């Protein structure tokens, strides 16, 4: 009976027929794997009589169809997975039904379609999970094989490690719907939904070397710069007390300034001069064995150059008139 | 049978040659000379090689070693006892002093080292470093370019007279040997070299020796332009304390044998070359030596580096053992008021220990050994030793590929490659005996094509080595496990269950066995 119905329809309108659609759960003797195969793909199930008719029309391979929901005029494209649906019905993936605004039992128009091969596609991941995939290329290569064609504004689901990743098809070339079987596609991505771009760590430009670490970096090595200001004291007061070595040797000597005369000013000046890097403490490495060399990876300046800069800075500061006693001078006697 | 003195205990040929030269600097007849051409006056008499005015005029900062010796000899007259004017610097206790009990119990002025007052060294043992060609260092720098890790190597070459400085010596570098090492992005570390003896033996056969060491300190600034940061300048440091101490250790291992000293050795001709960024941010080479005082301090193990200040070294404070004596070290510097003051060597700026040696390449490149790219027609390079970390392995496929570039009568060219010769003696398959190596080295030294061909035909070990290489390396790289195709897509679909696959009759796509239709074209499986 249904076959007759089909034939009539096909005779009347050349290449389209209307079917009642159901979700994959309505498939007789459906298994879980079958359902997920349909759901995570872009191929539908058609009745076997459809195959007979399609053969008669000598449809070009691969078989692609245009699905139209006549009620709301929504369109998408799909391939065919099997001709095993009950007569008069088509089994569609859930996403496709949502896409077309269909409910189980609604009628849909199916037409054979020929689509151009894709050259370019732009997808937008709908969740941030996509960023956690180690090899997105491989995942997509496998998952997109389950789709025969893409249509613009489709939201296509793929399964990855038990979770569903959705993509929105943002852009396609050369047409708004393309066939993605056996073609080379330039795939591009929009930032995922909800993705906030982090300010990227710019690799140091040609002239910019990372500046020297501040004083706390040196103190961290168990050695405190001799009386280095308030911040240094606070940082180390948690672990107060002297360090001891297990082998009974003395701790490496505490810092000694290169020029003893300016030693006091050096250590005090470290927190004062904020724009100058801290003067590194002189800490002896008595356990050094020759044959091992390591290099600095920040903009290093030698201690005496730094000290000189500090002195100049202080001198220029001292040269400026102090503004504690500002204002004009007056005499009590009044003007003569 | 004559037993030859090993190279390390022989006075270097260049020293023998220079000691026969008088080194007098001839001056042409000047404008003030009022005499015939064949006569001389005070204006045009030849001057001594250590003449300070002449050195200043020629902008030579340090006089050469032999000029220094002449100066010491010349001022003393020509007595027989004064032929050995050089005295080695000593920072450790003199052992076996018989006047008292050994050190912790007793000490005397005779065995106690003097207080060290650091002076900038007036002379230098080597006046110039000449790297024979560009490819040589390029090959060395390739390691850094490929891996981003720093690299250290020994400079292999010889010492030759340097004509631009009176009685000068230059070190010419013919190859770079890269010893086993642990390299990082910001450091290097020598590892124990089990082939040290073998290599020194090979070098002696080739008439070469280790003339110095080279390391890279390249910090990429812009990888697109290939520029590196300019880190070593007058406001930072030229050689860090760690490098100075390592250089001193190596200098102590390679003493300069000379008849002018009672100990028969004095200082060292071992140089240090740093490859680092220059002002224009390109990789450049700078040569240094550390002074004999520094070498002596390192020998006595009293010099330590500091953690955060590379330009400062520090004289050890706690002795290593009871017998370890730490002598005082002082240096004089100008303080901020411009007055000369004596300072204790805790800390001590390493610039007092440095002697700089200009390093460069000659205008006309010279090739003692062929380096991969020097011969444009040859594409295969023989891999450098100890580069397993970046996947460059010697032997096996590389050996076959390299050998296939050369025909039988080009064996001389094939063998004129330092890394190839090194492989012959250090490989773990068939090590070619000393006797045969000597013949090959002689052929390479003399560039004798006939002998080299004869060698290639006659040497059984060489045939065996090639046969072994063909046997296990012919198919590919025998040492690298073949990594399966990295594409996980093809790996997952076809891996493992290749038998359970059917190919679609319509589009020939290979489907998994479970499917009833083709997953690519969607058509049912045709029977």
Automatic annotation (TrEMBL), chain A:
<dbReference type="GO" id="GO:0005634">
    <property type="term" value="C:nucleus"/>
</dbReference>
<dbReference type="InterPro" id="IPR004854">
    <property type="entry name" value="Ufd1-like"/>
</dbReference>
<feature type="domain" description="Ubiquitin fusion degradation protein UFD1 N-terminal subdomain 1">
    <location>
        <begin position="33"/>
        <end position="116"/>
    </location>
</feature>
<feature type="compositionally biased region" description="Polar residues">
    <location>
        <begin position="253"/>
        <end position="269"/>
    </location>
</feature>
<dbReference type="InterPro" id="IPR055417">
    <property type="entry name" value="UFD1_N1"/>
</dbReference>
<keyword id="KW-0833">Ubl conjugation pathway</keyword>
<dbReference type="Pfam" id="PF03152">
    <property type="entry name" value="UFD1_N1"/>
</dbReference>
<dbReference type="InterPro" id="IPR055418">
    <property type="entry name" value="UFD1_N2"/>
</dbReference>
<dbReference type="GO" id="GO:0006511">
    <property type="term" value="P:ubiquitin-dependent protein catabolic process"/>
</dbReference>
<feature type="region of interest" description="Disordered">
    <location>
        <begin position="312"/>
        <end position="336"/>
    </location>
</feature>
<dbReference type="GO" id="GO:0036503">
    <property type="term" value="P:ERAD pathway"/>
</dbReference>
<dbReference type="InterPro" id="IPR042299">
    <property type="entry name" value="Ufd1-like_Nn"/>
</dbReference>
<comment type="similarity">
    <text>Belongs to the UFD1 family.</text>
</comment>
<dbReference type="Pfam" id="PF24842">
    <property type="entry name" value="UFD1_N2"/>
</dbReference>
<dbReference type="GO" id="GO:0009792">
    <property type="term" value="P:embryo development ending in birth or egg hatching"/>
</dbReference>
<protein>
    <submittedName>
        <fullName>Ubiquitin fusion degradation protein 1 homolog</fullName>
    </submittedName>
</protein>
<feature type="region of interest" description="Disordered">
    <location>
        <begin position="239"/>
        <end position="270"/>
    </location>
</feature>
<dbReference type="GO" id="GO:0034098">
    <property type="term" value="C:VCP-NPL4-UFD1 AAA ATPase complex"/>
</dbReference>
<feature type="domain" description="Ubiquitin fusion degradation protein UFD1 N-terminal subdomain 2">
    <location>
        <begin position="117"/>
        <end position="192"/>
    </location>
</feature>
